[in-house]
Amino acid sequence: MSLKDAALSVRENAYAPYSNFKVGAAIRSLSGQIYSGCNVENVAYPEGTCAEAGAIAAMVAAGEQELTEVYVVASSPQPVPPCGGCRQKLAEFGKRDVKVVLASLDGAELKTTIGDLLPGAFDASHMEDV
């Protein structure tokens, strides 16, 4: 299964009763395994958790800690970028040059990298003297 297919498939499982805005994400880990996640809303936190965070959580739960590719899809007129929190999570588990594809259901795609999504990201190198 491709990252695109995995993201499209899991998007259908999103729990979005408040916004009706379903997002699916798929990541490929260093081992080549694909992990996916979808957004989940609740009444106390109607904007919910993000699809990218769910995919990363699944990867970590499986014992992996590095991602090598990302695909995110949503029903929107143009590709939707990850929120700030997800950008930081992507930067935590992927290198700056990791390819990220943002897509809409109608087939529009925006290709970028983690570094372009979060320039100047805080990382472990900032704490080398600690």
From TrEMBL:
Residues 1-125 form the CMP/dCMP-type deaminase domain. InterPro entries: APOBEC/CMP_deaminase_Zn-bd, CMP_dCMP_dom, Cyt/Deoxycyt_deaminase, Cyt_deam_tetra, Cytidine_deaminase-like. It catalyses: cytidine + H2O + H(+) = uridine + NH4(+); 2'-deoxycytidine + H2O + H(+) = 2'-deoxyuridine + NH4(+). GO terms for molecular function: cytidine deaminase activity; identical protein binding; zinc ion binding. GO terms for cellular component: cytosol. Keywords: Hydrolase, Metal-binding, Zinc. Its cofactor is Zn(2+). It comes from the Bacteria. SUPFAM superfamilies: Cytidine deaminase-like (SSF53927). Zn(2+) binds at residues 50, 83, 86. Its EC number is 3.5.4.5. The active site is at residue 52. GO terms for biological process: nucleobase-containing small molecule metabolic process; pyrimidine-containing compound metabolic process. Substrate binds at residues 39-45. This enzyme scavenges exogenous and endogenous cytidine and 2'-deoxycytidine for UMP synthesis. Belongs to the cytidine and deoxycytidylate deaminase family. This is Cytidine deaminase. It comes from Ruegeria faecimaris. The lineage of its organism: Bacteria, Pseudomonadati, Pseudomonadota, Alphaproteobacteria, Rhodobacterales.
